[in-house]
TrEMBL record:
Highest taxon of the lineage: Bacteria
Keyword DNA-binding on entry: no
Family under the similarity heading: Belongs to the phosphohexose mutase family.
Keyword Phosphoprotein included in the entry's annotation: yes
Obligatory cofactor(s): Mg(2+)
Residue ranges constituting the Alpha-D-phosphohexomutase C-terminal domain according to the UniProt record: 405-452
Coiled-coil segments: none
Keywords from the named record: Isomerase, Magnesium, Metal-binding, Phosphoprotein
Protein name: Phosphoglucosamine mutase
InterPro entries per the UniProt record, alphabetical: A-D-PHexomutase_a/b/a-I, A-D-PHexomutase_a/b/a-I/II/III, A-D-PHexomutase_a/b/a-II, A-D-PHexomutase_a/b/a-III, A-D-PHexomutase_C, A-D-PHexomutase_C_sf, A-D-PHexomutase_CS, Alpha-D-phosphohexomutase_SF
Entry's EC annotation: 5.4.2.10
């Protein structure tokens, strides 16, 4: 989103403002002014008297949590404090308690020197583009509501409310079938927001938990984004553990990557189709059922959906965008290829690692197979995701070069530029969360993918 030049407090190279949150490097981009003004604007924008606050385990999280509590209470808002939890748990508690909104303090997969506010509106939905414009307008006009000398606001622990989120997830799967399998589950929570809640979910599913990095001590012992490269040590430990299946999280536990006994960490793109297969195992889809994914997600999802006679729709990248499209299409399932599973019947109604874990275990239990066997029944994924620093590059000139290189591909310009035909696609777009340009490509064969990447690399080198 382009920021108004009259809002200099929200303009800095170390600050990103989008539907994915207000995030930046502390103290340069995510400065004291940004922190204070963003919280005051959100509290002024909210209609209602209760706010749910959670955070991941970053060392800056506790002081940001304290500031958020003070600002919300000063504006007369009651605060339900969850502590270190997954983002989807904050969203679920907002929805289930009828709170006015919520704040998740997490920069997700960004490095540990970053932090962010992910603002959540009524019913647990992230603030969308229109909401964000209204919040920024309050900052621009300095039209904050005043602090109250006697606000009468309350602070309460919400730890007992997280079980309702777990219960909602359990209601979507065959718990008895999962318990009968007595799965041993390897879990790498990167010492983040999923360190407590995910092991609890697994225990309630009758699983033996083999924990790694499940101590939220303010450190990330591996790169926070759970890519196969970042999970090399975890993959080795998974293979040695004797676990039936493994799961790895990002710091705020909305994204999920699978690990298998034979392969270790696999592509994050498999998480969503495997979870959707679980849905298909346990539900009879309505006649007008659909699946919604974003523009950067693998077409393996279309393969799974079409096998059940279900159409697939695509949205702009970003959870808020996917959810909006799902609501419009009345989709029965959705998500993003970054390991984000969205089951709309769960009150988080967004990317939810708890949902993904439960659905994958449900699929394995009902099929009576191991994870490696199930994966052998799916098409191989040939995809590359490359990040380029934007620097002074002009995106429109880059898009023009890509159009010239792929004249036979149809184009979609809803979110950057996506060029696609039946057998391949390439998506070029500025990131919502980092100052980079993402180039994501997929093809039916390794050879065709290499050709796509070679062309893309030459374009970016010459830009």
């Amino acid at each position: 989103m382009a920021l108004d030049p009259r809002s200099p407090v929200f303009q800095h190279p170390d600050l990103m403002v989008s539907v994915s949150g207000i995030r930046g490097i502390i103290p340069t981009g995510f400065s004291s002014d940004v922190i204070y003004d963003a919280l005051r604007a959100f509290g002024s924008w909210l209609r209602g008297n209760t706010v749910v606050i959670g955070r991941d385990s970053r060392p800056s999280g506790q002081f940001l949590e304290n500031i958020a509590i003070g600002v919300m209470q000063g504006l007369g808002k009651n605060v339900i404090l969850l502590g270190v939890v997954p983002t989807p748990s904050v969203k679920a508690v907002v929805n289930q308690t009828g709170a006015a909104g919520g704040i998740m303090i997490s920069a997700s997969h960004n490095p540990i020197i970053w932090n962010a506010f992910k603002f959540i509106g009524p019913r647990g939905f992230f603030t969308g583009a229109k909401d964000l414009e209204e919040i920024l307008e309050i900052v621009k006009n300095q039209s904050y509501k005043p602090f109250q000398f006697k606000p009468g606001s309350k602070l309460e622990s919400g730890s007992d409310k997280i079980q309702a989120h777990i219960d909602a997830v359990l209601s979507r799967v065959n718990v008895s079938a999962i318990k009968k399998r007595k799965f041993s589950v390897f879990l790498d929570a990167v010492n983040g927001g999923g360190s407590f809640v995910l092991p609890e979910l697994l225990k309630q599913l009758g699983c033996k938990v083999i924990p790694l990095h499940c101590s939220p001590d303010g450190t990330f012992p591996r790169p926070p984004e759970p890519t196969p490269d970042a999970l090399r040590q975890s993959s080795r430990m998974m293979k040695q553990s004797g676990a039936s299946v493994g799961f790895a999280l990002d710091p705020d536990a909305d994204r999920l990557v699978l690990l298998t006994p034979k392969k270790g960490a696999i592509s994050e793109e498999y998480t969503l189709p495997l979870s959707f297969l679980s849905y298909l195992q346990t539900n009879r889809p309505p006649k007008k059922a659909s699946l919604t994914v974003n523009l950067s997600t693998s077409f393996i999802n279309e393969w799974v959906a079409s096998s059940a006679g279900i159409p697939t729709y695509r949205s702009k990248v970003g959870e808020a965008n996917v959810v909006s499209e799902m609501i419009q299409r009345k989709s029965v399932f959705g998500g993003e290829g970054n390991g984000g599973v969205i089951d709309p019947t769960i009150p988080s109604f967004g990317r939810d690692s708890l949902s993904g874990v439960a659905h994958v275990l449900n699929l394995l239990a009902l099929k009576g197979e191991g994870i490696d066997s199930v994966l052998n029944g799916l098409p191989a994924i040939f995809m590359r995701k490359i990040a380029y620093k934007i620097g002074g590059k002009k995106t429109e000139e880059i898009y023009s070069q890509f159009r010239s290189a792929f004249p036979e591909h149809g184009e979609d310009v809803r979110d950057g530029l996506r060029l696609a035909n039946e057998d391949s696609w390439i998506h070029i777009r500025p990131s919502n969360t980092e100052p980079i340009l993402r180039v994501i490509a997929e093809a039916r064969t390794k050879k065709d993918l290499s050709a796509l990447i070679d062309i893309a690399g030459k374009i970016m080198e010459n830009s």
